[in-house]
Specification:
There is one protein chain. The protein has 477 residues and is α/β, with parallel strands linked by helices. It has helices at 17-25, 72-78, 83-86, 154-163, 189-213, 227-238, 261-277, 282-291, 302-321, 354-361, 390-399, 420-423, 432-448, 466-471, and strands spanning 61-67, 102-108, 126-132, 138-143, 167-171, 219-225, 245-249, 373-378, 406-411, 456-458. It has a 10-stranded mixed sheet with strand order 1-2-3-5-4-6-7-8-9-10, with helices on both faces.
Amino acid sequence: MPVHPPRHPRPRRWLRPAALAAAALTAWTAAPATAAPPPQDTARPGHCTRAGTLRVPGAEHQQASCLRELTTAGTVASGHTDPADWAGLTPEGLATPRGVPGIQIDGYFPDSSTTNTNHGWNHDSQFVIRLPDRWNGGLVVSGAPGVREQYANDRAFGDWAVANGYAFAATDKGATGAAFHRDGESPGDALAEGNHRVTQLTRAARQVVARRYQRPPARTLAMGMSNGGYLVRWQLENHPELYDGGIDWEGTLWRTEGPNLLTFLPPALRHYPAYAAGGAGAGEAHRAMTAAGYPAGSEFLWPFHHQHYWDLTQRIYREELDPEFDGATEAGTPFCAPGTPACDADYVYAERPEQVRRAVAKIALTGRIGKPLITFHGTYDVLLPISRSSDVYAQLVKREGRGHLHRYYRVEAGTHVDSLADAFPGRVRPLVPCHRSASAALERWLDHGVRPPSSRTLELPAGADPAKLLAYCPLTG
């Protein structure tokens, strides 16, 4: 990926109190500090005999713990995860597996930024590696979604991974929280660092696994949701030699000419208030919303996303890639009205200077994947509208002649965070079971050469029982 020198040093500015208040509401924000993990918690004699010999290559600090339980059924109480980090990402009814003893290694790689306060370390590039006693020979590597930290995937698929025998490794991507854009020397650096940190952790985790189990992993999978799904795509495009395949759960799309976050979020900020107010302008505002990619039928989800997602996401990612738009102000003005100076509701990506596209070029995707990838994305995703993200990425993969390596499942009525399935039972389909189905399909593809079902839309069953939707997501549906 091209990296260009900055025209000017990036200003280091303080986040406004209003932005911090908004950050506390959004499901993308970083978790608060947690206490350092307690000392060894031995499940049975001998099951962690190699814990003292394990070293994470390149780590500046690490702390190994021998645990009776590696899933959130035990790590919440033992202090080896942070529930605030994965709050809001999964349905309440998601079952938590149990009975997975093993070793957990927490630590961090050298980094000069300090947004991640987990364990009181105040140090970014934190990671977690979990090594179950009963190993299936595989390794799952992930990066955090949004601007969360290394434990964000624990409930969504970290528990699933270790319960199924996988070693599991996750990174905070090198900068967390609503002020992540302060990291780096030039626009785009903080986002590009996430790709480097996943590569770094993958290489290190593979060596740790080989040391722990006395043989290298037979299968290394990249998995992630949202920004984490983007990381999966980037890794399979740029470092396919490190992986056997990947699962991309509603990955973010970055393209220099668009579409990207900065092309479809401003129209939502500009037109939603007029739609919500009703009256003569509501119909025109609704047409503008759907033209921007927000699908008809998803309107019941728009108020939540306007309050919690659209505004903050636009402002902090725009600040990372285009800090000069609002001058000395940091991350714009929350919920500003169109027409006010430097308002993100009026942001037009196509009219911004070429230097903005150079910043996006540092993280842009091409579709040139080098290993099998399964993508799934909800049709009611109104943070990353499917027609402006995964639909486009699937076409990029085909255009690059890599369609034989890709399967793409559009999940009817799925949205960006599964917790909304609890708020709207039967109207929103949780995507967690689609991850389970996709993972099983990827395993069959890699191990036995059985290709997954062809790419398709998975329709919402008529009269869908919420309990059944949480249990099943057949890829043949």
